[in-house]
Amino acid sequence: MFCAATLGVEAQTQRGIASYYTKSWTGRRTANGDRLHHDSMTCAHLKYPFGTRLKVTNPANGKVVIVRVNDRGPFVKKRIIDLSWGAAKALGILNQGVAMVTVERVTEDVVIPMKPEDDPVPIPELELETHENDSSAIPQWQQLPIED
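Predicted structure:
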C-alpha cells in the first residue's frame, strides 16, 4: 500500500511536459506486463503505482483525458508523463510531439477504456424458432430412450 507521504506526488497537481508512445510501440510489454495498444488510455509515470488513474489536462486547448498508469517513465529530464498514442491524440498533442500538461490523481472509481468505443461492434439480432415436432431442437442425450 502506498501513501501520499511516500510518493510525494499523489496529493498535488503536477505541471510539466508530456510525451507519447508512437504507434510502432503497439504490442510491446509495459512494466506491469500489459501489452501496449496505441488506442488505449494508458500512461507511464515514475512515481504513481500501477493502476492509478490520472487526469491529464492540456492547458493550451482545455482538453482532458483520464489514463491508467501501466508503465514506468519517462526517462527524459523535465518530462513528467508518457502517454499512449490514443491519449495524446485526445489531448491534441500529436503534432507537437511534446506538450505542457497538468496531471492530477483521480480518486473516484472510473472505467478506463483500453480501446475507444467509438465504433462498437454491432450485436446481430437472432430470430430463433422452435417447432413442436422438430427433434433437432432437442439435445441428442434427451432423445435417447430411457431403459428400465
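Summary: The beta strands are 14-20, 42-44, 53-58, 63-71, 79-83, 99-105.
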